[in-house]
Design brief:
3 helices, alpha+beta, 7-stranded antiparallel beta sheet, Alpha-D-Glucose-1,6-Bisphosphate, Chain A, domain 4
Length: 146
Amino acid sequence: MAEQTGAELEISAPPAVIMDTIADIDDYPQWCPGVRTAQVLDRFPGGRPREVEMVFDSGPIQDTHVYRYDSWADREVRWHLVKGETVRGLWGIYSCHTLEPRRTLVSYRLAMELTVPIIGALRRRAEKVIVRTALKGLKEQIESGA
């Protein structure tokens, strides 16, 4: 896996609510900027997504990605890119750490390999924007009661 970028954000909800929101792939276009459509292609026996397709339309970046979820736990989910055109590799981990019964520190780590060469500092900056934007969207989705 390539070098990771990460961020943390406190969300006013228990880990189960956060993990359920992350697993609700159909709602990603509502809270994850740049995601135009998202659909589950395959599920684990317990119902959590195993493979998903997301269509991105974010300014100059237009791509279709297929992700495979490697593991789902009560407080952590890991996934990686299976298919994409502008990105060769993408790995992500969301993890939840309870602070109080209804307060959770959510950590999101991301590593990315692009198909075109790019200066490391620019790639890390893009990763930081993706991670922070995703965490902010997740927090707003959950705390707004959507």
